[in-house]
Amino acid sequence: MRIGLLAPPMIPIPPPAYAGTERIVAVIAEELDRRGHDVTLLASGDSRSPAKLIPIVEESLWKQNQEGGMPWYHLAAAVAWREQGRFDIIHSHIEGAGFLMARYGDVPILSTMHGRLDVDGMPELLGEFSDVPLVAISESQRRWFPEANWVATVHHGLPLASMPFSEVPGDYLMLVGRITPEKGVAEAIELSRLTGLPLRIAAKVANPLEEQYFREVVEPALDDDGIEFVGEVGPAERDPLLAGALATLMLGAWPEPFGLVAIESLGTGTPVIARRAGALTETIEHGVDGFLVDDVAEAALAVEKVRDLDRAAIRGRALERFSATRMVDEYEAIYRQLVAEARPIPTVPAS
């Protein structure tokens, strides 16, 4: 198939450090190319992929110190619309900005929704575009909108087999993400103090709100023994930190639509202690892959029990459940279905 993968132009593909959507697009592009499809990436011009590249902008917006925003998503949709004749199908990762194109375009357009769907006018947008084919990344994400045209729920997958692994539990807690309240940063610091375990924070501080939260919450805690901020780091530094931890913390009350950090941690064999919210209830089996908690007091109890979990089994389950090949198998089947449905039924001349 001739497949176009449409990505936001904020970060290059693959992303150099912390990112979500862009990492998934990179994995899909690489695996589809490996399978022999004619794959074109519509993304920032500084992206690097085995797929062909049509640039939306010459350089990723964050490299230009631009935040991005909806105008850039609409530009991405415009470029895809202009180039749609090249493809049998377009797989859009630009949220609702691709819906008009999906309704009126000349080729099938599948939209994977990566964010929350209960904010910023998304309920109204989903109501209007109830005809466009959508993929959810978790049952939690889609549960408020059963009337939408969901063709599947596809859990994310990553090449986890290459992640480092340690069968021996570490002696510190780990947090990976962004310095924002919804990522449970304050709760992780509180848990570190409560349990006396060191905490390592590998997180992004990229905008004024994150900078303010860092000054107010993280910076004062760095005077504590054992709380270390290592900043935003790439896989070469981040993955060994995950593998060496006692547990990875995801204690924010924000309902994660998926949560890549969780499966990355599980891929290293390190269990996850997470707030019982969002898609984490689908990726983490309580008492097997980690623990689902309702507050910091329960998280402290989880810390006492987490050494008893089988880290080899955690890794094995993650490799089976969240592989890149499983994810792309599911997307490939959806592409074939949508392309087949879009082909006109040949008419037989009357005899």
Radius of gyration: 21 Å
The strand line-up of the biggest sheet is 3-2-1-4-5-6-7
Structural class: alpha/beta
Q: What is the assigned CATH homologous superfamily of the largest domain?
A: Glycogen Phosphorylase B
User: What is the first-to-last residue Cα distance?
Assistant: 35 Å
- Which residue ranges are poorly predicted, with pLDDT under 50 across at least 5 consecutive positions? none
CATH fold-level assignment of the largest domain: Rossmann fold
Largest sheet: 7 strands, parallel
Query: From the 3D coordinates, which CATH architecture of the largest domain would you assign?
Result: 3-Layer(aba) Sandwich
What is the count of distinct domains? 2
Which outline best applies? globular
Average pLDDT: 93
β-strand percent reads: 15-25%
**What's the helix-strand series?**
EHEEHEHEHEHEEHEHEHEHEHEHHH
Please give a structural write-up.
This protein is an alpha/beta fold and 351 residues long. It has 2 domains: 2-158 and 324-342, 3-Layer(aba) Sandwich (Rossmann fold), CATH 3.40.50.2000; 160-321, Rossmann fold (3-Layer(aba) Sandwich). Helix content is 37%, strand content 16%. The chain is built from 13 helices and 13 strands. The strands form 2 sheets. A 7-stranded parallel beta sheet has the order 3-2-1-4-5-6-7, sandwiched between helices. A 6-stranded parallel beta sheet has the order 10-9-8-11-12-13, sandwiched between helices. Helix 6 links the parallel strand 8 and strand 9 (199-204). Helix 1 (21-34) crosses helix 13, helix 6 crosses helix 11 (296-305) and helix 9 (260-267) crosses helix 12 (311-321). It starts with a strand and ends in a 9-residue tail after the last helix. The mean pLDDT is 93.
